[in-house]
Specification:
There is one protein chain. About 40% of the residues lie in helices and about 15% in strands. The protein has a domain at about 40-210: Lambda Exonuclease, Chain A, CATH 3.90.320.10. It starts with 8 loop residues before the first strand and ends in a 14-residue tail after the last helix. Strands 1, 2, 3, 4, 5 and 6 form a six-stranded mixed sheet that branches. It is α/β, with parallel strands linked by helices.
Length: about 280
């Protein structure tokens, strides 16, 4: 059974879609406060982000785009080391050594394929937040990777070219947050680093859909209202999804104990209804 230990949750843009992917996993993570071990693919992304941040921070100060691979790699590996301290899970046939090589290649792809075509930003890694009046959720907030006068961009790393539509909710929330904090966002971009055999980068435009993203957030808040009212067992409201893309031992630390993945759902019976 999910226990409610947190009553000051901050919704992050990246967690909205995960609620609809598996609300049981979401509840264990955000309501109960249970932590998952990081996997090396996510940590590689964190490392490449750190390299990009270090570059743009230096570039904003100097007003010159002069990539320093050594400095960027140092920043990337420092970020990797922090993630590795958290009992890293490795994908099949991958190690710390192979991950370090991918981080270097990803950083080089960012320098070669993104830096020449990206305007020097006004700011990077800037946190924006909007307060919410809810019993369990106090705000929605997140960190935007790259900001100019009218553009925000998110750096994505993956083994395959990203499907832009899959990032619509997250990027729409980022646009909402930036606009709520005074930035006139006209364009959303994905700065993509594809970590294939020969990594490559690209900049992809996308259309945000802020009204739809707001509806999804409100649906989460409405669902959590039902949890608070205790109208049914919490697992009946926050159900697991064995068909979720990230339902598996590789991706979810709760998989082995999850009643939904094992087909052994054991929750209290619903409240007896009055016969009419």
């Amino acid at each position: 059974m999910i226990k409610i230990n947190n009553t000051d949750i901050r919704l992050r843009p990246s967690t909205i879609d995960s609620f609809f992917g598996c609300s049981y996993q979401w509840g264990l993570t955000f309501l109960e406060g249970r932590q998952s071990r990081p996997n090396n693919r996510a940590a590689i992304g964190t490392a490449v982000h750190a390299a990009a941040e270090a570059f743009w921070t230096e570039t904003i100060a100097s007003k010159k785009k002069e990539p320093n691979l050594s400095m960027m790699t140092d920043a990337a590996m420092e970020a990797w080391s922090e993630e590795a301290k958290k009992d890293m899970k490795y994908s099949k046939e991958e190690t710390a050594g192979t991950s370090a090589a991918v981080i270097l290649q990803g950083t080089e792809a960012f320098i070669e394929d993104i830096v020449p075509f990206a305007k020097i930003p006004n700011a990077v890694e800037e946190f924006f937040e909007v307060p919410l009046d809810h019993a369990l959720v106090t705000s929605i907030g997140g960190t935007v990777d790259y900001i100019t006068d009218s553009t925000i961009a998110d750096l994505k790393t993956s083994k395959r070219k990203p499907v832009v539509q899959k990032h619509s909710t997250q990027q729409s929330i980022y646009k909402f947050l930036a606009q709520a904090n005074g930035i006139d966002v006209k364009h959303n971009l994905i700065q993509s680093v594809v970590l294939k055999k020969v990594p490559e980068g690209s900049i992809i435009g996308m259309e945000a859909n802020v009204p739809h993203a707001k509806k999804l957030v409100n649906h989460i808040l409405d669902t959590l209202d039902l949890v608070i009212k205790d109208v049914a067992p919490i697992e009946t409201i926050l159900r697991g999804n064995p068909g979720y893309t990230f339902c598996g031992d590789q991706w979810c630390d709760f998989y082995k104990e999850c009643p939904f993945s094992k087909g052994k759902i054991d929750v209290a019976p619903p409240v007896q209804k009055i016969k009419l």
